[in-house]
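Ligand: cytidine-5'-monophosphate. Inputs:
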Amino acid sequence: MIYVALDVPTTDEAIAIVDELAPENRFVKVGMELYYRGGNELVQVLQEKGCRIFLDVKMTDIPNTVYKATKQLAQLHVDFITICANGGVEMMKRAREAVEEVQGENPTTKLLAVTLLTSMEENMLRETFQTELSPEEWVAHQTRLAKQAGVGGIVCSVWESDRVRALYPEATIVTPGIRLQADASHDQKRVATPEEAGRRESDHLVVGRSITGKLNRNEAYETMLEAFEQGRGVRS
Ligand code: C5P
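Predicted complex:
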């Protein structure tokens, strides 16, 4: 599926985008900007409009705090909640336990470990984390941590998705940084087209500006989805 990033500051703007999408295309990502404004009330309004939700709060804190925070969020029964893999195995494990305690053994919510922001390229990675690892090696390392913690989902760029699949075959792989050939890449560094994402190992895409910035957002959604499905067809 494609989750549309509702990167807007107000609930009214978010709802306006959702209303433009056909009911079957209402898969949305609520990030920090919007969640800090609209909170759980907005999540509920979106769910009432038939939206499937990806809550992108990129949690990171001490394990006990993340455990308690995840217990709160698990009550929302969204599809995905993000957690930063660099918070460590113990933190991710506690988050998983929190979801299981609230939702049982087969939870509806899947945790996604964010491995590396798609805006981060090699030099930035080296300077920020003082590491000699390439983005791919870094993502591989973070994937191993997530697997060890039993976190079932991985967020990475399309370019690392093959490596992630090889390391963690049963993972749900979600890739942002998606652009049509004709679109600007903005602040994203490791961008790929939806076809490429489909040909490689993405299970779901996150698309923001390449849909929300278009005049006809529903048409943009369907164009992206068709291209993604075409790519996946080549894969199988
Ligand atoms: O507009 P654009 O398609 O670049 O939006 C991408 C969305 O995906 C943003 O909401 C951003 O926060 C999110 N994201 C990302 N890279 C990650 C995780 C999330 O770009 N590794």
